[in-house]
Give the backbone structure.
Amino acid sequence: MDWVGLLGRVLMSAIFIQGGILKAMAPAGTIAYFAHDGLPVPGAAYAVALLVEIGGGILFLAGWRVRLVALVLAIWCIATAMVAHYHPENRDAMIHFMKNVCMAGGFLQVVAFGAGRLSLDRR
């Protein structure tokens, strides 16, 4: 069953690594999107997004300091849910909001129980 923890980290990290890479490939559009969402310093938000999504995604995938990284990603999920997706009048936005809340719950499970045996934390 050790592979189940690894598979879980692969699946959970994929959305962050992919999203971070897509943001890195379109900096102007991403920064404009952040400005549209009302973030006060969209350029800094862009840099933080790249760090959290690519860096955090890779660290989580590898299972290095996974409890701390999972906590950061859980907080990130809630923060992005509130900033980008909380629009109760919009059903599609609320589906994304709940997806982020669900992902935060999954990350909190990793905070509580760790990365599993197939991780850098366990080497």
In short: The chain has a mean pLDDT of 97. The chain has five helices and no strands.
